[in-house]
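Retro notes (design track)

What went well: tokenization of the new backbones is finally stable.
What didn't: we kept losing track of which sequence belonged to which structure.
Fix going forward: every design gets posted as structure first, then sequence, in one message. First example under the new rule, 239 residues:
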């Protein structure tokens, strides 16, 4: 990978880490389309590992707002979803995985845009956890299902509980990827190289939170994610 290509990925991961730490999700939605365009072999492992670092730091920062009961029901659903996502990653070719990733992003963008929000009940939490596990393990984009369930809550509550879910869920996904042989040396080296960028994104989120409210940052994330998904589809169709 060239220096320029890695720099572009670094910028995307920095912005994605900042967004994840600010609104509780977004690492995959923002960074995955960029990584898929430049270095698809790094997906989904590199972003899942990077998301683990961000979510751990957010959980520590927002620990007073944790609601472990709701997170627990979502994690119960995450287990079968994670297994299904790991198997899907083995069965699908790179092209199919890239198109699936783009479709997931556009689906998340469409649902978020219309403002639909399911009730935060046990059944919905478990279902969202399963969907997040499948999508997150296969494509590194597991945020939209859980973000829908928690949308409308107070900012710190959203960040802390989504981060707690994604922290444990990301560890599950990494274990499943390792079990299926989908974690290779290039992914781990990329993760190590990008970790300082991830930490900087977390630090930057403290300043971003002072100037951008949740609605504005959410609008930016939806717009950028949608454009990234469209570019990814174009690349797979025309190149």
């Amino acid at each position: 990978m060239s220096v320029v290509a890695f720099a572009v990925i670094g910028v995307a991961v920095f912005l994605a880490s900042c967004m994840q730490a600010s609104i509780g999700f977004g690492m995959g939605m923002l960074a995955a389309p960029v990584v898929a365009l430049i270095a698809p072999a790094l997906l989904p492992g590199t972003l899942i590992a990077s998301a683990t670092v961000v979510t751990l730091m957010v959980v520590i920062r927002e620990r007073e707002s944790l609601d472990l009961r709701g997170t627990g029901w979502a994690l119960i659903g995450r287990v079968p979803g994670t297994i299904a996502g790991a198997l899907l990653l083995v069965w699908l070719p790179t092209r199919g995985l890239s198109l699936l990733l783009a479709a997931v992003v556009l689906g998340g963008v469409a649902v978020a845009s219309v403002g639909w929000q399911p009730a935060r009940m046990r059944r919905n939490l478990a279902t969202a956890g399963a969907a997040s596990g499948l999508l997150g393990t296969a494509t590194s984009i597991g945020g939209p299902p859980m973000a829908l369930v928690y949308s409308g809550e107070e900012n710190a509550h959203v960040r802390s509980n989504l981060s707690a879910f994604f922290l444990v869920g990301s560890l599950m996904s990494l274990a499943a990827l390792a079990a299926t042989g989908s974690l290779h040396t290039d992914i781990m080296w990329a993760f190590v190289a990008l970790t300082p960028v991830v930490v900087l994104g977390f630090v930057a989120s403290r300043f971003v939170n002072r100037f951008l409210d949740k609605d504005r940052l959410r609008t930016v994330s939806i717009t950028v994610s949608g454009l990234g998904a469209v570019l990814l589809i174009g690349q797979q169709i025309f190149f």
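Added context from the reviewer: The chain has a mean pLDDT of 84.
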